[in-house]
Write a structure and sequence with these properties.
Layout lengths: L1 E2 L4 H13 L7 E6 L6 E3 L8 E8 L4 H12 L12 H8 L3 H13 L6 E3 L5 E7 H7 L5 E5 L5 E4 L2 E5 L6 E5 L13 E4 L27 H8 L13 E5 L7 H11 L10 E5 L13 H11 L7 E6 L10 H9 L7 E4 L3 E2 L5 H16 L3 E5 L19 E2 L7 E7 L4 E2 L6 E7 L5 H11 L11 E4 L2 E4 L3 E5 L2 E6 L1 H21 L9 H6 L4 E2 L28 E2 L1 H7 L3
Parallel strand pairs: 12-14, 12-15, 13-14, 15-17, 17-19, 19-23
Antiparallel strand pairs: 1-5, 2-9, 3-7, 4-6, 4-10, 5-6, 7-8, 11-25, 16-18, 19-20, 21-22, 24-25, 26-27
Length: 570
């Protein structure tokens, strides 16, 4: 953090204002407002003297150029393809201008706020602490206490707030304010494997088809057979694969060794991962610390992307970004000189829980990472068309961040004659418009869909998922035993491993990693196995049917390693 320095003349002026007890006022405009989410209830007003730790997000110097750069460096055939930005180049576009910093800090100074620090990847947040009463006055807000219905979460939030009209070009959002997020809790389903079949080594080797045993238990060997994933070891140590960890989910080195010994015969059982931590994250290795999600994600990156360095990024509970650490981890990655080439995340939210302003703030962080050459992959969710987890609904619930157009959303399939997994979340964002790379494929799907589900979703929204991979009866080692897990949280690390292995070949040939994947993937749809059967029920409907071409259940399809490698020019 960098402490800002202020001039005595400003302090003299604000002292007069404070003495009068009246902060400077300007013409105000509402920046965000929302209805109270159905899963929270008002618990009354907080003590007005309670301290709130607030942060203001500052606008980027040139966001439009940043987005254009993303597509320039990510679109095959573009003269700038593969020319990813350095940290300094990204900061010049994504960071705030000096004029923006000055305008917002001056306003805060005028209102008696001088203890201000800068945070964020590019010093693009201003942080300060004030009593609730001051926050209500300064932002024309009404901070209240809210409790989660049926849960333990208690938040101090407001359903609306305002900023000076002349500062609209400089401020993106205030946090905490209108955010009520709830993170998804990991795989949809997991059960112990009977001891008679636990961790049995599958040695089938027929290319691009898997033995029938893979219909009931999926292992790395099954994936190698099904998708043509090579067993040879990667060679490029600079080509790292990041795995996000949240909500006290920790991978166990003993479980990883057990997994590799029994289910990944081409990987040395001593192979492990490195650890990064933020927000008080950790990775304890005590008995009982095994986390199903964390073990799954690490085992199917280390065990499938043979030889690719895997880093587990443990995000602790001491986060204050309003997104359970989702923005903090991206700030951490975007400020790195050499960020990982791939990042897979198997958690998410329901889009209605996120305000559009907050969603855009995080989505732009993924956009920035893409300009740096990072491929961002997310599990699409496990509630079919009803959101990140199955729930009652009358209209379809998109998931987030899958609706962000600057990342790759991964749905799930099942069986060796692949069909969509019924829980595979997919649909259309109500916040983000359809990106250009989806124009044709989504239009084709909507035409084929006809009037089915009309009125349940936005026909103009960004469609997701983009791709898919196996997500049913995937075997892991957990707590010293074997379990089968279901979920798109299986599919994301599997697809991420395929991309990491392709990047290994590219880097070895002196080329750039793939970076933001979607322009490449949508330009080469035949490089994936098209999934044309199944659907994703929810909200009292059968959801969306899988069809030829892209669909909002399995996207463009599942990976064909050889075809993707050829399309990448490796």
């Amino acid at each position: 953090m960098v402490r800002l320095v202020y001039y005595s003349a400003l302090l003299t002026g604000l002292a007069t204002s404070m003495a009068a007890g009246i902060p400077s006022r300007r013409s105000m405009v509402v920046l965000e407002s929302r209805e109270l989410p159905v899963h929270f209830a008002n618990a009354g007003a907080p003590n007005p003297d309670t301290t709130l730790n607030l942060k203001v997000a500052l606008t980027a110097t040139d966001r439009d150029s940043l987005e254009q750069t993303l597509f320039d460096v990510s679109t095959p055939g573009n003269a700038l393809y593969g020319q990813h930005l350095s940290f300094e180049e990204a900061k010049a576009l994504a960071g705030p201008s000096p004029a923006t910093v000055q305008a917002v800090t001056s306003w805060l100074n005028e209102n008696g706020i001088t203890d201000i620090t800068t945070t964020g990847a590019f010093d693009d947040w201003l942080a300060f602490s004030v009593p609730v009463s001051t926050a209500n006055s300064l932002f024309e807000a009404d901070y209240q206490l809210f409790t989660e219905i049926g849960g333990e979460t208690q938040l101090t939030r407001t359903l609306a707030y305002s900023i000076p009209a002349d500062l609209q070009p400089h401020i993106n959002l205030l946090h905490p304010s209108t955010d009520f997020v709830r993170i998804s809790r990991g795989p949809k389903f997991h059960v112990p494997v009977p001891s008679s079949t636990s961790l049995s080594n599958n040695t089938a080797s027929r290319a691009l088809t898997a033995p029938t045993a893979c219909n009931s238990v999926v292992t790395p060997t099954c994936l190698q057979d099904l998708y043509g994933i090579p067993t040879t070891k990667a060679t490029q140590k600079s080509n790292t694969l990041g795995v996000s960890g949240f909500i006290d989910q920790w991978p166990q080195t003993a479980d990883l060794e057990l997994f590799l010994e029994n289910l990944a015969p081409n990987v040395a059982p001593t192979t492990t991962f490195t650890l990064q931590t933020l927000d008080g994250g950790s990775d304890p290795q005590n008995a009982g610390d095994a986390g199903v999600e964390a073990n799954l994600d690490v085992q199917y990156t280390v065990g499938v992307a043979n030889g690719v360095p895997v880093v587990f990024i443990s995000v602790g509970e001491s986060n204050s970004d309003g997104l359970d650490g989702f923005l903090d981890i991206m700030n951490n990655i975007n400020r790195q000189t050499s960020p990982p080439h791939v990042l897979t995340t198997s958690y998410g939210f329901d889009e209605p829980d996120i305000t559009s302003t907050q969603a855009n703030q995080l989505c732009d962080a993924y956009m920035t990472a893409g300009t740096r050459g990072v491929s961002i992959l997310f599990a699409s969710g496990d509630g079919g068309v009803s959101g990140s987890q199955s729930q009652s609904c009358t209209t379809f619930i998109p998931t987030f961040p899958s609706g962000c157009p600057f990342l790759t959303s991964v749905g799930a399939t099942q069986g060796i004659k692949e069909t969509s997994a019924s829980f595979s979340s997919g649909g259309f964002s109500n916040i983000f418009a359809r990106p250009s790379y989806q124009t044709t494929v989504v239009a084709n799907y909507l035409t084929a869909l006809g009037s089915t589900n009309r009125g349940h979703f936005s026909t103009a929204g960004r469609g997701f998922p983009d791709v898919a991979a196996q997500g049913v009866s995937v075997e892991i080692a957990n707590g010293g035993g074997a379990e089968l897990v279901d979920g798109t949280s299986c599919a994301s690390p599997i697809f991420a491993s395929v991309i990491a292995l392709i990047n290994d070949r590219l880097v070895a040939a002196g080329k750039s990693p793939l970076g933001f994947l979607n322009p490449f993937l949508y330009a080469h749809p035949t490089a994936l196995f098209d999934i044309t059967t199944g659907d994703n029920p929810g909200c009292g409907t059968n959801g969306f049917p899988a069809k030829a071409g892209w669909d909002p259940v399995t996207g463009l399809g599942t990976p064909n390693f050889a075809s993707l490698l050829a399309a990448a020019g490796a």
